[in-house]
Design goal:
seven-stranded antiparallel beta sheet, 14 strands, 10 helices, elongated, 407 residues, alpha+beta
Length: 407
Amino acid sequence: MQLRYTFRVYPDTGQQAALARAFGCARVVYNDAVRAREDARRAGDPFPTAGVLSRKLVTEAKQTPERSWLSEVSAVVLQQSLRDAETAFRNFFASLKGTRRGPKLGAPRLKSRKDTRQSIRFTANARWSITGSGRLNLPKIGAVKVKWSRTLPAVPSSVTVIQDAAGRYFASFVIDTDPAADAARMPESDRTVGIDLGLTHFAVLSDGTKIDSPRFLRRAEKKLKKAQKELSRKQKGSKNREKARLKVARAHAKVTDARHEFHHQLSTRLISENQGIAVEDLSVAGLARTKLAKSVHDAGWSSFIAMLEYKAERYGRTLVKIGRFEPTSQVCSACGVKDGPKPLHIREWTCTACGTVHDRDHNAALNVKSAAGLAVSACGAPVRPGVIPAQREETGSHGFPTEPRAA
């Protein structure tokens, strides 16, 4: 499978200016492609093909005085920007037809130079390389210093250079992993586990282990509030406002990175220790519309489950997601009697049928494991049919499975 290995890079002043030019050129070509398709739609004409757009918006545009500066950056960056526009339209049409999973997508929009996140992509055709001294040599940008936190397991197929909202630069390499090496890294285990995700504890396992919720956002709220207040007092368009914006962005990035690292460490531990894992398919979008929204977003359940999914596939584990309407908190894990709904403030309850005293979260974790078919009954027969392999997620773009990046 494909994964991204992301490392922090430190371009000098000249390289930052070259990257800014590349970001700008890629953004202009993307916007030109979106406008060309929108103009064709309004005129009732067929959409221009990728080849036509490449010729008009890149090759011919470089010969005009208005777009002559496109020659200052690598042609591969411009071609990849056109591919991004093509992919955006393809995903939009697939969403309209209902053939694409997930929420409905809107039509591609124009990118702004004020966007806080910028990126460009270099494929193998760009002839980028890693020098003997460990620098990343990019065409028309130069050899950029990289902070390597680990070695790359294989030759990357492409690299994406990213500038985030906090002004940091990253190089994200796409790597094809070796299944044999992954299998040797994590041998098979005979253990299985059910996980109940929550807010009082981030996770409670079916073996009774309780993992506290770090609450990264809650702990940083005082500092974030102060930084946001300073930003609101700065005059719009001033240099001091930009400095204050960066301060807020860096504070949020620190919270995000800490949460990401916590998710990676916990998911790797669970995958390495257990052959089968069961979790509940929570409606995070629905819970985010309640009074618990801030705590739900602070927990980051969706990100954690996504990590479990791709790591389970990578290392040959089984991940089962049970339905969100399964009454895991209402059923006695000892006798199977449904004891009715219980308010959230009730953390312990006694089964009216068998008299077993249950911890609410531990009982739910046991029921999650049982509902997924990872447990057996007293007679030794499976409670549910056998587990099914986790579905593979699309990789190779931001927002999909990534390895933890360097600090």
